[in-house]
Amino acid sequence: MMRRIYFHRDSKRGAIGTHDWLLEEIGELREALKEESKKALEDEFADALAWLASLANVKHVDLDKAALTKYDSKCPKCGQSPCRCTF
Amino acid sequence: MMRRIYFHRDSKRGAIGTHDWLLEEIGELREALKEESKKALEDEFADALAWLASLANVKHVDLDKAALTKYDSKCPKCGQSPCRCTF
Fold first, then answer.
1. What is the Cα–Cα distance from B83 to A82, expressed in whole angstroms?
2. Interfacial A residues in 3-62 facing B (CB < 8 Å)
3. Which residues, including other chains, have CB under 8 Å from residue A85's CB and lie 6 or more apart?
4. Measured between beta carbons, which residues in chain A are less than 8 angstroms from residue B56?
5. Is residue A36 classed as helix, strand or coil in its secondary structure?
6. Interchain proximity A75–B5, CB inside 8 Å
7. Would you tell me which residues 58-87 of chain A have a C-beta closer than 8 angstroms to some C-beta of chain B?
8. DSSP assignment of B5-66, as one string?
9. Cβ–Cβ below 8 Å for B4 and A82
10. I need a labelling partner for B20 at 20 to 30 A (CA). Which of A34, A73, B7, B45 fits?
11. Digit-coded pLDDT (tens) for B25-71
């Protein structure tokens, strides 16, 4: 969906510029954690995911596939679900 | 899936601590943009999405629903797909 809506912009801006925007949204998300408004928080999560997807598109990475390959229903470090890592 | 694997840890750590980890992954993602290895880049995208989902779980936000509510098949600012915003 993000590709349909924004790829023409994202690809022109490139990866570093798109990561700049992602970083900005991650910062806004941190501020929103302190707010009382659930809607404001949901908006910031939406933006964070949107920009992460935009960046994945610019780098031709399938975000879903990458996540499900690494986190294949268990912790990639200890192999368990729930995770039983000891640090 | 992230809830099943990690919620017991994420909820104890809390939102700010989880956001700290998310921020670290976003930084690693930026470094990975410069690397040649596609696999390394895919891993960092996986981690970024995983930590964003972890944070959403800690805050009881449905990440999918938040994104699809805001980006309902069109740009939330101009209402078009592809986006036709002029800045």
1. 41
2. 4-9, 15-16, 19, 22-23, 26, 29-30, 33, 38, 41-43, 45-50, 52, 55-56, 59, 61
3. A75, A77, A78
4. 45
5. coil
6. yes
7. 59, 61, 63, 65-67, 69-71, 73-75, 81-83
8. HHHHHHHHH-HHHHHHHHHHHHHHHHHHTTSS-HHHHHHHHHHHHHHHHHHHHHTT--HHHH
9. yes
10. A73
11. 999 999 999 988 999 999 999 999 999 999 999 999 999 999 999 99
Answer whether B9's CB lies under 8 Å from A83's CB.
Answer: yes
The residue whose two tokens read 């994945």 is A56
Instruction: Retrieve residue A58's tokens.
Output: 């610019």
> Alpha carbon B36 to chain centroid distance?
23
CA-CA-CA-CA dihedral for A21, B38, B6, B14, to nearest 10: -30
Structure-token match 């990975």, residue found: B32
Give the distance, in angstroms, between the CA of residue B1 and the centroid of all CA atoms in the same chain: 14
Q: What is the pLDDT of residues A53-84, one digit of tens each?
A: 999 999 999 999 999 999 999 999 999 999 99
Sign of CA dihedral A9, B26, B4, B15: negative
Task: Name the pTM for this structure.
Answer: 0.95
